[in-house]
Specification:
118 residues, mainly beta, 53% strand
């Protein structure tokens, strides 16, 4: 059964950094585009960053461009989100998502809480 497990969330002060990890199992990791989404209370889930399955093309939400970096290691079935210069508005539950080439399969992790506060 495919599974995504996130880790790395926590409490950080404004301006600080965190690195989120997403480890996949039960699927052919290199066949999936990987994305990070986030959701804060009262708001819809929003796409933060995506990295394609081959070639590693990346895209970012305007709100995180220049501060967040998504990467992947297909040999370790891992997707990463490096978050720098964090702001209070980055506070949310962050979710890892895997999407197959023709969008017929998608999987979600359980989420990891990121809180940016002084």
């Amino acid at each position: 059964q495919p599974q995504l497990v996130e880790s790395g969330g926590g409490l950080v002060q404004p301006g600080g950094s965190l690195r989120l990890s997403c480890i996949a199992s039960g699927l052919t990791f290199s066949a999936f585009d990987m994305s990070w989404y986030r959701q804060s209370p009262g708001k819809e889930r929003e796409l933060v960053a995506t990295i394609t399955r081959i070639g590693g093309t990346t895209t970012y939400a305007d709100s995180v461009k220049g501060r967040f970096t998504i990467s992947r290691d297909n040999g370790k079935n891992t997707a990463l989100l490096q978050m720098n210069s964090l702001k209070p508005e980055d506070t949310a539950v962050y979710y890892c998502n895997a999407l197959s080439r023709y969008r017929q399969y998608t999987y979600w992790g359980q989420g990891t809480q990121v809180t940016v506060s002084s």
